[in-house]
Design a protein that fits this description.
Layout lengths: L1 E4 L10 E5 L1 E3 L5 E10 L3 E8 L5 E7 L4 H16 L8 E13 L2 E12 L4 E2 H5 L6 H18 L3 E2 L8 E4 L2 E4 L6 E2 L22 H7 L8 H17 L16 H10 L11 H12 L2
Antiparallel strand pairs: 1-2, 2-7, 3-4, 4-5, 5-6, 6-8, 7-8, 9-11, 10-13, 11-12
Helix pairs in contact: 3-5, 3-7, 6-7
Length: 288
């Protein structure tokens, strides 16, 4: 049997890919593709079963084959293989699969790259909208996520941190989706142009917003800190950290306000410079 892969709703799709329901990687692992989980602007995610173990995973297929999109997907795969932290999504396998790309009456044979990774049950956004997290829960998760960001910052800048890209697997909140990451040592052609919107529209750092209107600001590690702090503010207060923030709006423990407030500052020199510094400030506040 075949599986349809598409970026839009099926009745509105511009094109789709047909692949076999069962695929095999170069390493010999075989997977059964099942339900669709989600889709973004470039890729689609399905559930899959490892045929040899019965374990269930998420499998992400890159459907947009423009050169810069393929390079970003390759970078995401590389980071998944490279990074190890309890609060980062776990890599399992990768490969390519033969596909028939259909657009209208035309079709062509192509290959789709994919990556197999840990399956998470929910997004933080879906949970935070309808659930109040107590400090006993978010203290541990904030510590874990800041340390995960510190691990990622040894190699790359994330640039796309938002509640939808933080997944929940069991008791862990996981930083995921490395498709917009920029490697620190990448001196090759830049994938991002000035005026291009880089990052999550409602959660972008000031410098990312400035770039989108033509100001040549650098998006750096402190930009990731801003985005993660914005997520923390949302989790605690159930509001978006828009405009001039005050302590009167803070609904969480007083000791946690200052490190998150400073991390949301417009002036990046006031923010923690990276995940490691932010992790230390969060941990010091929690245990003060």
């Amino acid at each position: 049997m075949s599986i349809y892969l598409f970026l839009r709703q099926k009745n509105k799709k511009q094109f789709y890919h047909l692949i076999n329901e069962t695929l095999k990687t170069d390493s010999g692992q075989q997977y059964e593709i099942t339900d669709r989980i989600n889709a973004g602007g470039n890729a689609v995610v399905h559930r899959c079963l490892d045929s040899s173990t019965g374990e269930e995973y998420a499998i992400k297929f890159q459907l947009d084959h423009r050169d810069n999109r393929l390079k970003r997907f390759s970078q995401e795969q590389k980071l998944l293989q490279l990074l190890q932290n309890d609060h980062l999504i776990t890599y399992h396998d990768h490969g390519t699969v033969n596909s028939e790309q259909v657009s209208g009456k035309n079709s062509k044979q192509t290959k789709l790259p994919f990556v197999v990774m840990e399956l998470a049950e929910k997004t933080l956004f879906s949970q935070a909208k309808c659930k109040n997290f107590g400090s006993e829960i978010y203290f541990a998760q904030f510590r874990g996520l800041t340390k995960a960001l510190a691990t990622l910052h040894q190699h790359a800048i994330h640039r796309d941190i938002k509640p939808d890209n933080i997944l929940i697997s069991g008791e862990r909140w996981l930083l995921s989706d490395y498709g917009l990451c920029a490697f620190l040592d990448d001196d090759k052609e830049q994938l991002t142009k000035l005026n291009e919107i880089v990052g999550p529209r409602l959660w972008m750092s000031p410098e990312a917003n400035n770039r989108s209107i033509g100001k040549n600001d650098d998006i750096d590690k402190s930009s990731d800190v801003f985005q993660l702090a914005a997520v923390f503010w949302f989790v605690v207060n159930k509001t978006h950290p828009t405009g001039v923030l005050t302590k009167n709006e803070w609904q969480g423990p007083a000791k946690l306000f200052e490190p998150i407030f400073n991390a949301l500052h417009y002036d990046k020199n006031i923010r923690p410079k990276d995940g490691e510094e932010f992790a230390k400030q969060i941990e010091d506040a929690i245990f003060s």
